[in-house]
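Here is the promised in-class demo. Please do not try to memorize the tokens; focus on the logic of going from shape to residues.
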């Protein structure tokens, strides 16, 4: 059979969703002004309308535009509102007040819990659903945003987060019985979706996109049967295209097609196996196939030749193929044209959201470009790094057994039982932030900036000595961010001027771009640690960010496996660790808060991930002498699937988020054969509340009971940079007192 050489003239261009914070973070500013009382509800709505209008300006180059993907805070919260499932504690007079009560909490109620959205750095608000939840259709937002696009003459496709995913992402409400699962409520919820679809249909929507990202994860037979029943019911009301966006649909693909959906949106970047699966299935030529060939998760230009070939393959299956992004473009910055400092070779290889829309329209255009993506330039290769890695022996990631090195470490740095320490950062005061801003704008010369930061280190050391902590930190005042700080000093990385991506609510991050081979050209942290150590007799921990976290919070090259890139970062860190050790640092902490985040969505890929992730950490850390102690730090709960990986890091001390899980993580670590020491966070730093010393003592007693006194450290559950000294001082006083109390009772 002859492959079509170009796409048919009627091939449509679309995307699954779009960045919604505004090209210059306009929504962030409006939200923060509103929260602080400087902007009223009408003003906020005007700013939101202008952001939506800008989204439509950009999306107008497409044949069909997604609508409803704007959000004031989070699209999961929008869906909770659309099905009227707000918890009673968040219901207030006005809709906006209820919405923000759920998102951020207020005097009366704690907010919804927040957690990571699949394997991304986006955080969603976790719905709370119980047997008592009464669902009702509130189609207002979805209809209004659809009509906004219609009014412009655009062919609009409303987008809803689907009922299956909404429930699978939910947790049981506080009052739910122990055997209740939110998914039990699917039938009730589907009735409400039927009404939402009816409202959209009345407004003129001919096709609705329902996002079911939860179908990109492993699903049980029971769940798949429920998916089938759900979609049989929904397709009777409306033509539906189901989007996943976070890998292959896998076993859910035939289920959806058999249920009679109008079409599916395929993630052809991470879910290429769906393409083969589709070829093996008997698919109607009428099936709408959205070919997600343009990566919605990363910022590299699309290989248009490869994408064109994939589109052609789909055209052999169906007469209705459209070109699309692989996921919503939510995860990429808006416009590459805002970047003026990046090298040309990099600019030529990048595409942000606006550029991606152009790629999509080019691919839908029979005359459009099908240029193959050029390989990385030779200048981005570092043969020295590659050969060093190739020559790293099998022992490079192994230390002598913990018991032996523990003895050596105790001899080198004698510490009391339950040693007290912190996680690294101290409060980033307004003064510090001002100094950083002035330095960035060129208003403060390097020497003055450095002097100011050193003065801060001296303050932080003095504070800790006064508090009586056992192992000190320098406080990280010189770090703008725990990843960017290293990215700015390593080769192979670039930082963007305005490459902002929404992390949650009004919070945005600016991930560095890891584009080439990574190498360290000079020590990155030694001067700061050594300076801090020169001010005190107490041990000061060296403080580094681990390879997995550096990858997780960057846009990473996609032309080689992540494992290879991780090893390069690890090698650079290994050199830094060696230099810290040579400078006399006895304790080096390597943070891996994102170890859980990169865990693949599908179980089948997880073992390979655990292998490379933990090996890269060990490459970074295992080069030290036995008497040098390696600490690591993890936060964000839900360690379940990475608990073995935590053990495999083979650190001497692991400080870990434990306060929210009531220390349960300790038993899990034990089952994973973790035998070294643990610093279970006894104080939740995410809350401004000063914890009671008694509560911290009680947490320490639990830890001592679980691990024995020799293996317990006393520390908060994360860094202190977001807190104020007014909270930090009394909290740390309480921590030191709690450790003393429990120590004396041993
Ligand atoms: N050392 C870092 C700090 O204290 C760790 C931050 C984190 O875990 N996210 O700020
Ligand atoms: Zn942390």
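The designed amino acids, position by position:
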């Amino acid at each position: 059979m002859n492959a079509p050489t170009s796409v048919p003239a009627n091939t449509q261009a679309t995307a699954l969703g779009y960045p919604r914070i505004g090209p210059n973070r306009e929504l962030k500013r409006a939200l923060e002004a509103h929260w602080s009382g400087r902007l009223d509800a009408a003003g906020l709505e005007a700013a939101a309308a202008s952001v939506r209008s800008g989204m439509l300006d950009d999306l107008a180059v497409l044949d069909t535009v997604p609508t409803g993907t704007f959000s004031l805070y989070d699209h999961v919260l929008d869906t909770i509102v659309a099905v009227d499932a707000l918890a009673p504690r968040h219901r207030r007079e006005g809709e906006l007040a209820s919405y923000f009560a759920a998102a951020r909490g207020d005097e009366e109620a704690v907010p919804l819990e927040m957690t990571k959205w699949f394997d991304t750095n986006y955080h969603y608000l976790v719905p709370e659903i119980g047997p008592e939840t009464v669902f009702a259709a509130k189609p207002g937002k979805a209809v209004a945003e659809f009509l906004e696009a219609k009014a412009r003459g655009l062919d609009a496709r409303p987008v809803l987060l689907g009922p299956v995913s909404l429930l699978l992402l939910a947790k049981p409400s506080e009052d739910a019985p122990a055997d209740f699962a939110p998914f039990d409520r699917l039938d009730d919820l589907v009735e409400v979706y039927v009404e939402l679809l009816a409202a959209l249909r009345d407004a003129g929507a001919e096709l609705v996109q329902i996002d079911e990202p939860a179908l990109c994860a492993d699903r049980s037979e029971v769940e798949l049967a429920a998916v089938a029943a759900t979609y049989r019911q929904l397709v009777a009301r409306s033509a539906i295209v189901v989007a996943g966006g976070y890998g292959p649909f896998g076993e859910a693909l035939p289920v959806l097609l058999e249920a009679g959906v109008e079409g599916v949106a395929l993630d052809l970047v991470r879910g290429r196996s769906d393409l083969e699966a589709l070829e093996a299935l008997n698919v109607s030529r009428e099936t709408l196939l959205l070919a997600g060939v343009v990566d919605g998760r990363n910022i590299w230009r699309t290989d248009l030749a490869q994408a064109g070939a994939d589109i052609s393959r789909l055209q052999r299956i169906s007469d209705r193929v459209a070109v699309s992004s692989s996921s919503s473009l939510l995860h990429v910055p808006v416009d590459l044209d805002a970047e003026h400092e990046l090298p040309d070779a990099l600019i030529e290889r990048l595409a942000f959201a606006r550029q991606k829309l152009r790629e999509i329209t080019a691919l839908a255009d029979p005359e459009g470009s099908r240029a193959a993506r050029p390989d990385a330039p030779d200048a981005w290769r570092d043969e020295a790094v590659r050969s060093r890695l190739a020559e790293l022996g099998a022992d490079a990631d192994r230390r002598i057994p913990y018991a032996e090195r523990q003895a050596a470490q105790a001899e080198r740095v004698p510490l009391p039982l339950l040693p007290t320490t912190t996680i690294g950062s101290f409060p980033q005061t307004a003064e510090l932030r001002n100094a950083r801003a002035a330095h960035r704008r060129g208003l403060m010369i390097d020497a003055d900036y450095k002097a100011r930061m050193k003065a801060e280190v001296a303050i932080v050391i003095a504070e800790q000595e006064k508090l009586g902590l056992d192992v000190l930190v320098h406080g990280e005042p010189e770090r703008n961010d725990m990843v960017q700080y290293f990215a700015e000093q390593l080769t192979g990385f670039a930082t963007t001027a305005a490459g902002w991506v929404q992390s949650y609510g009004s919070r945005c991050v600016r991930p560095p771009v890891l584009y080439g081979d990574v190498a360290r050209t000079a020590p990155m942290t030694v001067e700061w640690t050594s300076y801090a150590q020169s001010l005190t007799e107490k041990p000061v921990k060296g403080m580094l960010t681990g390879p997995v976290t550096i990858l997780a919070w960057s846009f990473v090259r996609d032309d080689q496996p992540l494992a290879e890139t991780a090893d390069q970062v690890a090698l650079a860190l290994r050199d830094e660790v060696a230099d810290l050790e040579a400078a006399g640092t006895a304790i080096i902490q390597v943070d891996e808060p994102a170890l859980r985040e990169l865990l693949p969505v599908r179980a089948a890929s997880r073992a390979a991930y655990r292998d490379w992730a933990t090996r890269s950490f060990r490459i970074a850390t295992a080069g030290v002498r036995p008497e040098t102690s390696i600490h690591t730090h993890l936060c964000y709960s839900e360690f379940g699937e990475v608990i073995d990986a935590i053990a495999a890091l083979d650190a001497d001390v692991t400080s870990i988020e434990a306060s929210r899980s009531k220390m349960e993580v300790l038993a899990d670590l034990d089952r994973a054969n973790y035998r070294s020491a643990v610093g279970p966070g006894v104080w939740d730093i995410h809350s401004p509340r000063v914890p009671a010393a008694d509560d911290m003592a009680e947490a320490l007693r639990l830890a001592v009971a679980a691990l024995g006194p020799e293996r317990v450290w006393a520390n908060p559950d994360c860094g202190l940079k977001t807190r104020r000294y007014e909270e930090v001082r009394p909290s740390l006083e309480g921590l030191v007192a709690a450790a003393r109390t429990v120590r004396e009772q041993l």
